[in-house]
Amino acid sequence: MFLQTIEHVQDPDAVLDHVREVVGPHGVAFISTPNLLTLAEPGAEKSGNPWHVKEYRSGEFRELCERHFGAVDLFGLFHARKLAVHEAALKLGWDRVHKTLRMSAPFYDRFTPAIAASDFALRHADDADLDRALDFLAVLRP
Fold it and tell me: In the structure, how many helices (H) and strands (E) does the chain have?
């Protein structure tokens, strides 16, 4: 597993070459990375994270993986249930409202611990609009 790391390296091709060597001819590698389109501001080529060297769109991430592995299954991680509602509220300006009312800390003190695995959905690329995914997960076989 190589989770939330590929975006931090200078030479991702060298890393994936090494991962392929390590898993051997019959192994499987799992690699995840954030989605540039949901991480960065609209139209930006990179988020403000100073430790990210390269952030990927789904097609770019797939192309990178396909250069090194014969079989690439791409999945997207999405908000589900209450996080989907929260995401919609943010788009409608919820952050401005709770900051103005000084209720950010009490809200997030209760909301954050209530987040569970069921608040996320992992969908195969064939079944999902990956542009909306929070993260990508590639399952790679030589």
Answer: 6, 5
* Token output for 84: 């989907």
Q: Is 89 domain-assigned?
A: no
Q: What pairing do the DSSP bridges indicate for beta strands 71-79 and 120-124?
A: antiparallel
Give me the number of domains the chain comprises: 1
* Domain membership flag for residue 130: yes
113, part of any domain = no
**How do residues 12-68 score in pLDDT, each as one tens digit?**
999 999 999 999 999 999 999 999 998 888 889 999 999 999 999 999 999 999 999
- Rounded to whole angstroms, the Cα distance separating 115 from 140 reads 29
| Statement: the pTM of the whole predicted model exceeds 0.90 | no
* CATH code of 66's domain: 3.40.50.150
